[in-house]
Records
---
Amino acid sequence: MENILPLAIDSVELNRPIIISGPCSAETEEQVLTTARGLARAGIKVFRAGIWKPRTKPGGFEGIGVPGLAWLNKVKEETGMKVSTEVANRGHVEAALEYGVDLLWIGARTSANPFAMQEIADVLKDAGKDIPVLVKNPVNPDLDLWIGALERLYNAGIRRLGVIHRGFSTYGPQIYRNHPQWRIPLELRRRFPSIPIICDPSHIGGKRELIASLSQQALDMGFDGLIIESHCDPDCAWSDRNQQITPEVLGVILDNLVFRDAPVPTENLVHLRRQIDQLDNELIEVLGKRMNVSREIGAFKKEHNMPVVQAGRYDDIMTTRVLAAKSMGMSEDFMRSILSTIHEESVRIQVELNNKKQS
Ligand SMILES: C=C(O[C@@H]1C=C(C(=O)O)C=C[C@H]1O)C(=O)O
């Protein structure tokens, strides 16, 4: 994906940070227009509203459907905002294009489905419509699947592509509705620096209280914008009421966010980055030495017919190193995750050695 173009609508590039806001679902014409007026007052330029809602279970509100597209048109006429909605199949795309929706996004359940993605790419190609499209991360933390979804659209000629980071599904109770796993969007940024990343703190947090801090975190990580759910009367929303905020609250949150976009002369960083380069080299050297010792231990185990994994020793290592790391101001989780990765590789090397035929 060499030729990604900036996100622009009607040849006007969206200013960073790109802020998209609107209700989770379009419910009534009045709710859509009242919310839109509040958002326009708060300076929002791109309105969002779900028209077709992929719900976890049947029986919930599954979206207002095509009549909602006419309300989006009214939002455009009255406020001048651009409008966006989620599409999940051929019919949705055709209807959205017919009603002049300015920007489309693909939901997390759809981007996880290559058949649906190909169908959407095909209909956009057939329509010859060059429209900006944002692709939410798939529900499962699979970067290649996310990239695959983007590639299908790119191959269909869509060049104004972006992504939405909405967090990843996990099982069991936790703080976030969808765990952010920031390293996944950051890896996408590393591989495709020109694809804009928009954070969706509403779906990551699942609660109003988390929106401000998640938004700031995303901006601090260099994300290009935010998509935040907003409703004129959040407590009465027909879907996702816990994570919606009024346009007025959104205005306050946005006023308090710090967008760090000043071009900093990189010379200031050169010295520090040299230190990081040097330290990384030392880390690699030390890790190489550690793996060599593990190889020797593996050879000994093979000779004496000992099992590779030694749970007691591993537990000792984990406990002592985590304590040592903590005393140096590092997080316990961080050290645990590093050690488990190192241990996994060390065990892999010893198992490989065991499986080698004696020559
Ligand atoms: C290196 C060994 O083999 C395995 C790998 C370990 C490691 O790399 O730290 C620790 C315990 C074992 O599960 C060992 O037994 O000491």
Note: The first strand starts at residue 8 and ends at 9.
---
Amino acid sequence: MDRILIEALEVDTVIGVYHWERTIKQRLSLDLELATDIRPAAATDDLALTLDYAAISERIQRFAAEHHFELVETFAERLVATLREEFGIAGMALTLRKPGAVPAAANVGLNITRGRLAPSERDGA
Ligand SMILES: Nc1nc2c(c(=O)[nH]1)N=C([C@H](O)[C@@H](O)CO)CN2
């Protein structure tokens, strides 16, 4: 299984558990690894046969604009479920950072993996 990467994608969204956070947008930084087999696209040079990282990045920006969550956990879980369903992604890993949320820390956040990301014997690993 190969992986398409999207790194340090910045999105602005309403997110947080405190009252003051409900009235502002805050920046999140996202790293994604998207499991796919790149060989069909590589053999034909056809974007339609792979995961379009530009289209997925745009969808993430729209998701962030349209949703207001309290927890980063909810944002991450719902985003991953949406992307997997809409783009048919077998497995993916997401690292989400909320810089500045804890002033003494460079970043706080989480990472999650959903579906199958690890190589298997069937993939020729
Ligand atoms: N595990 C989490 N802890 C905290 C979250 C969160 O989303 N997940 N959020 C906050 C506040 O919104 C914080 O980011 C404001 O500085 C606190 N802890």
Note: The mean pLDDT is 95.
